[in-house]
Design goal:
The structure is a single chain. By secondary structure, this protein is mainly α. The protein has six helices and no strands. It folds into two domains: 47 residues, no CATH class; 87 residues, no CATH class. Helix 1 packs across helix 2 and helix 3 runs antiparallel to helix 5. The mean pLDDT is 87.
């Protein structure tokens, strides 16, 4: 067979870390509109202002997507994308990219196979660290997705960096880990 042969040396932890983050970003680019629709459906009816006859009501995922495109434009489907990509780089890189390294850490010296306990511990460790690191980006992403229906003058944040700063200043640093 003609072509490239797989490398004899397995990829380093750094290569796994970066490639996992990039793969997560590519997946997020494809699924972000669905996530935005999910957030809009979840927060519908949560606003303390009474609904008016003209207020938008979302019905189902595809109904939400079409209503958003019709009333706010196609760009609204990607509101908060920068924070979403930051989340994927952090979350995917840590949870997937460092999994093998953690699995080796938990595997007893001299063991031929990695046991179920070592795999579970590695998954729990990388997952917990990934969530703890990615939570601020998730908070910012959801706030952008939720505020998409507001007019430009009513929006609280001018950029992703402004959102991090404003949340930390107004709610304290713990506000970035809300939820």
């Amino acid at each position: 067979m003609v072509g490239l042969k797989p490398p004899e040396v397995p990829p380093t932890a750094a290569v796994k870390f970066v490639s996992a983050g990039l793969a997560g970003c590519i997946a997020d680019l494809c699924t972000f509109p669905l996530d935005t629709a999910k957030v809009r459906l979840q927060i519908q009816g949560e606003v303390k202002i009474p609904r008016t006859i003209n207020s938008v009501e979302y019905r189902g995922v595809f109904g939400t997507l079409s209503t958003m495109v019709r009333t706010e434009g196609a760009r609204s489907l990607y509101s908060g994308l920068a924070a979403g990509l930051q989340r994927q780089m952090g979350f995917s890189s840590i949870s997937i990219g460092l999994y093998d390294s953690m699995k080796q850490f938990y595997t007893p010296k001299g063991a031929e196979n990695t046991g179920m306990a070592a795999r579970l511990l590695a998954g729990c460790t990388t997952g917990a660290v990934a969530v703890a690191c990615a939570q601020p980006t998730d908070v910012v992403k959801v706030r952008f997705q939720a505020s998409g229906a507001l007019s430009d003058s009513a929006r609280r944040y001018s950029s992703t960096v402004d959102a991090y700063r404003t949340i930390a200043r107004e709610e304290g640093i713990r506000g970035l880990w809300r939820g």
